[in-house]
Amino acid sequence: MKKKPSGKELEDFVKTWQQVGHRGKLLLADTYGVCYDTAKHWASDSGLLGKDEPPNSMTLHELMEIQPRVNLDFVSFDIETSNLKADFSITLSACIKPFDKDPIVFRADAYESWTTDRANDKGIIRDIASELSRHAIVVTHYGSRFDVPFLRAKMAKYGLSPLPPMFAIDSYQIAKRNFQVSSRRLANLSAYFDIGEKESVDGSLWMKAAYEGNKEALDKIVAHNIQDVVILEKLACISFPYLKFIGKL
Q1: What does the alpha-carbon distance between residue 248 and residue 236 come to, in Å, rounded to a whole number?
Q2: Which of 16, 51, 175, 187 fits 198 for a cystine, CB–CB 3.0-4.6 Å?
Q3: Model's pTM, two decimal places?
Q4: Mean of the per-residue pLDDT values of the chain
Q5: One domain for residues 99 and 11
């Protein structure tokens, strides 16, 4: 392994780092006998990087150059819970929809604990995390503030391994930066862009499902969940042209 470059060599290293794509960065790191992350730290710590390289992010061009170790696709992800806080809530359902494919549906009443220990949602959380980990890019709507932190909090509670390195697109954040509309909620955006009708939320359904274990209520919640990821996939396609970079999950 070579030593960290210094002086003029470091300047040349950083200049090359900024000019090449992700594959070029991998080759540059290999030239110095270090991994990509070490080389990236060399460049970041040099103080010579320009302001056009956001931390912990990749351009779309760089992303497409990666040789994938998982399915290099994007999935729409949405989770339904009895409350907004993980320590006061149970998971009712979740949908993961690979692009242009049928949604993968998880529902709490498919697990034995639903009838014996409803507060224990480890099974469904484990399966959601396992499927999500198979994909490279996760699309959510306000998911950086709710869906993903909720899932992580539950995973940590149950001693599950953290999600692997993944990439995230939050259509709410894209809408906030680019679309001057009255509301960036999914229901309003879906109506405005005419990409599907999102049903209104009836709070009593969530109460009946969570506290009574009512199957009919959960059926409606799951249908609502599926519709959300279908709309979200369409919103993601509208949002993609406005992406400057794809950040890490």
Answers
A1: 17
A2: 187
A3: 0.71
A4: 88
A5: no
